[in-house]
Design goal:
single chain; alpha+beta
Length: about 400
């Protein structure tokens, strides 16, 4: 079985609404195989093979002329964040993983962690790494920095906003055109070297290894206050490696950081649309890591189709519903899977045109408008505390700079 067949089989399984992995693999390769036999064969494949496949298959998709929302000046916007996956409590998994601690002692399931770099605007994964949840996000990110595409502006939350993490990221990205914009906690010290006209400042930050200072980072810091769409105030403290205040104004950088929220939308699509179950189906750690890799590859396939459909329909990528496009893609995949060898090139082009029409009819979202009244959930029918309203907001986040 070639690597291409392996990727096709795994991605095909993740795009199916029902059925077992062995049945779909049998359909794909024309063989009869039970679930246990397929699982045993898949267990022989090293996880490193999936890492190599992802490093080759995960590529940025946006083009400056067609998806300008994915770029800022000369840089491609890339978000980096992590999430956790629950795995079944089989003996093989519990031998290698321990359940995570929670407010009520232990979690119900053991966890695996995924750290992913996503192209903002298209929701296309460009790099990913998974491991046990005991491995922290900063630890997993060490092998992720070198996979960031050239010419990227990496946007990350406060978990990555430390001098040590930034020092590692800059060291791995040395010699490449990769910039960083990260949020920082207020209790991290920095000495101001020079104030800039736009309200930001050049600061010196000590890099610590344990109790020893191992170096200094020279960064640009900016602070801002804002009001979200829900009316709640917030504060931002950001560090960036973009030192030119004239070319990269502080207020513009603050608005760019707000786009990091799209990474959370990608994880919602990955967990609720591509994989609708709350727990992974694999029974070993190795096969669970392979399943996560297949899910990321499946999301990359849908993201590529989403960009192509947006170009053909001449609409922004965000106007296409990920879930509705996924449903249409499943039907197209089934058609070519069953009849692909019988269809003529003319019939294949006709099937693609029908697919585009279905996407236009079902997946194309109208321009969002302000609601006359907020959406509200049903009132609770028991004494258990429950959220009773879910308002909807439109507009832009308001940001006001604060001089450092």
């Amino acid at each position: 079985m070639s690597a291409e067949q392996l990727v096709s089989g795994l991605v095909f399984h993740q795009l199916q609404p029902s059925g077992t992995l062995a049945q779909h693999a049998a359909q794909l390769h024309g063989i009869r195989m039970s679930d246990s036999a397929y699982a045993q064969r898949r267990a022989l494949l090293p996880v490193e093979l999936f890492d190599q496949i992802m490093s080759t298959a995960l590529q940025p998709l946006a083009k400056r002329a067609e998806q300008p929302e994915s770029f800022y000046e000369d840089y491609r916007l890339v978000g980096v964040d992590g999430t956790q996956w629950s795995v079944t409590n089989t003996p093989a998994i519990l031998e290698q993983l321990s359940k995570a601690a929670s407010r009520r002692l232990q979690a119900a399931f053991a966890k695996l962690r995924l750290v992913c770099a996503v192209e903002l605007g298209t929701h296309a994964p460009v790099a990913a790494v998974a491991a046990a949840a005991s491995e922290g996000e900063q630890t997993l990110a060490r092998s992720l920095w070198r996979r960031i595409p050239e010419g990227s502006l990496v946007i990350a939350d406060r978990l990555f906003g430390t001098a040590c993490t930034l020092s590692e990221a800059l060291r791995e990205s040395e010699g490449r055109n990769v910039a960083f914009l990260v949020r920082v906690r207020d209790n991290i010290g920095a000495s101001v070297e020079r104030h800039l006209p736009d309200g930001s400042a050049i600061v010196q930050v000590a890099v610590r290894e344990g109790h020893r200072i191992s170096g200094q980072l020279r960064l640009r810091e900016l602070r801002a206050t804002g009001v979200g769409l829900n009316g709640e105030p917030f504060t931002l403290r950001l560090w960036t490696t973009l030192m030119d205040a004239k070319r990269y104004p502080a207020e513009t950088l603050g608005h760019q950081y707000v786009q990091r929220w799209e990474h959370e939308l990608y994880y919602r699509e990955l967990k609720l649309d591509v994989r609708s179950a709350g727990v992974l189906a694999s029974h070993t750690v190795e096969s669970a890591l392979q399943e996560i890799a297949a899910l990321v590859l499946a999301s990359a396939v849908v993201a590529r189709l989403r960009v192509q459909c947006a170009q053909r329909l001449d609409v922004p990528v965000r106007r296409l519903s990920f879930f509705k496009l996924l449903l249409a893609t499943r039907d197209l995949w089934n058609t070519f899977q069953l009849l692909g060898h019988l269809l003529t090139p003319t019939q294949q082009r006709h099937a693609w045109q029908q697919y585009l029409e279905r996407v236009r009819y079902s997946a194309l979202l109208p321009e969002r408008r302000a609601r006359s009244c907020p959406r509200v959930l049903r009132q609770p029918v028991s004494k258990w505390p429950r959220k009773t309203d879910q308002p909807s907001y439109t507009g832009e986040v308001q940001i006001k700079l604060v001089r450092v």
